[in-house]
Amino acid sequence: MIEPMNPFLHHQQQVTRRQFFGKSATGIGTVALASLLNENLFASASSNMAALPGLPHFAATAKNVILLWQGGGPSQVDLFQHKPNLEKLRYQDVPASVRGNTRLSTMTAKQAKFPILPALKPFKQFGKSGRWLSELLPHTGAIADEICFIDSMFTEAVNHAPGVTFFLTGSQIPGRPSFGSWGTYGLGSLSQDLPSFVVMTSSDAGKTCGQLFFDYYWGSGFLPSKYQGVRFRSEADPVLYLNNPAGISRSLRRSALDDIAALNSHHMQSYGDPEIDSRIAQYEMAYRMQMSVPELTDLSNEKAEVLEMYGPDVNRNGSFARNCLLARKLVERGVRFVQLMHAGWDQHNNLNYQLENQCKDTDQPAAALVRDLKQRGLLDDTIVLWVSEFGRTVFVQGDVNNPKGHGRDHFGVGFTIWGAGGGFKPGHSHGETDEFAYHVSKDPVHVHDMQATLLHMLGINHEKLTYRYQGRDFRLTDVHGKLVTALLG
């Protein structure tokens, strides 16, 4: 699509030689002064973010997305892909003819042996669809008929940060806009008093996973910063600097913002810098969030049966369970994109005991979120996506004879994710891997294909949502991606 002229670049093109040298005399000094000033002094009012002209491109099946990010790489071999014949091959090497030249991480690529480790726990069939799942996931099994399982996901990344960045931004190199930022840029905001894109993070209670969550996982990249995700913290105030300083009343803050608004608006007209507009929007949103966020994070009005549905961990600040419940509340209040980043699945040497703990932390809350949304009539137009950067190897990493010293390495081919609501085909399993759970044998789905399909559900043609930057039209799916129609209900 053709983008309007960037106002900042347009202004630069109109500056005369005399104006340039006139401003240069104070330009460097102004930059130095700005570094000494409190940047929070510069604020003003702004209108709500609107959708781009022409969007959505067609009728959408979803208007909200809740991303349940399972950081570290859950083992599809142990949880999702039923391969009973692997038991007969226990501790035998994966044949070299099967391994081929599949890319592995440096932690296992040079292993002398690649002994097969079957699933740790038995599998059971669930629901009318008869979906096979590990007994470690009883709550997910209970909603199996609401879920679309994709068993043939593959990615090019073999390490965590590049893998997360690739799925969320379309590139393994940081700097591109995240999925939520692209969606907010294209579709605008639905809420007047909350951000359009909210992020919350959590970890397993034992903090066994050392993976970090970087800000660029929800950053806006080269898009204006008003489209970046707003992180809600689990401790103290959910958003930093949201409360007024001592002695400053709400009416006084409003008056100050109104006065500064005039200054910022004049500055915007003079320079056309889009980041001035972002600051305007962010400060006005912060003012409205002073009222909306405390009410949002208060669970005292939730019914006892709802809290019970999410499990006992819902009462612990910063838990995955609590964040799942808050995600439902955010969607109810018009937040378009909610990204829950949960760490704990990177089980290189503690698979034998930590996998079960991690399932206990996440299985019930994720299923409860789907059930809760459905009971409230919100699931039809809300995508819930349970996803990770990659899966795990079918072979063992470490000493298989040491119960607390072995696990599985990263593996980017043929892992499983699932989606519910928002247009996903319920009770459906898409794609397959071979008998070794090593290669995709049917209906592969690349990361870019998944991105294109999610955008389609939101009414966006992934090839037409672009942003011109440094002389090139960028998009989430880069120059790749195809719609996977088989996933759509």
The main sheet comes to: 9 strands, mixed
The level 1 CATH classification is: Alpha Beta
Q: What count of helical segments does DSSP give? A: 13
Helix-strand category: alpha/beta
Which shape, going by the Cα principal axes?
A: globular
Radius of gyration from the CA trace?
Answer: 24 Å
> Unreliable runs, pLDDT <50, ≥5 residues?
1-5, 7-14, 16-47
- Please indicate the percent range of residues in DSSP E strands (runs of 2 or more): 15-25%
* Count of domains: 1
Mean pLDDT comes to 87
Give me the CATH architecture, please.
3-Layer(aba) Sandwich
Helix content: 25-40%
Quaternary state reads single chain
CATH fold name: Alkaline Phosphatase, subunit A
Span between termini? 28 Å
What does this structure look like?
By secondary structure, the protein is an alpha/beta fold. The chain has one domain: 3-Layer(aba) Sandwich (Alkaline Phosphatase, subunit A). The protein is built from 13 helices and 19 strands. It has helices at residues 7-14, 17-36, 76-79, 96-99, 138-142, 160-169, 179-187, 250-271, 274-296, 304-310, 320-332, 351-375, 447-457, and strands at residues 64-71, 123-126, 131-134, 147-154, 197-203, 230-231, 337-343, 382-387, 391-392, 397-398, 406-407, 410-411, 413-420, 428-430, 432-433, 440-442, 445-446, 467-469, 472-474. Strands 1, 4, 5, 6, 7, 8, 13, 14 and 17 form a 9-stranded mixed β-sheet that branches. The two termini are 28 Å apart. The relative contact order is 0.21. The model is unreliable at 1-5, 7-14 and 16-47 (pLDDT under 50).
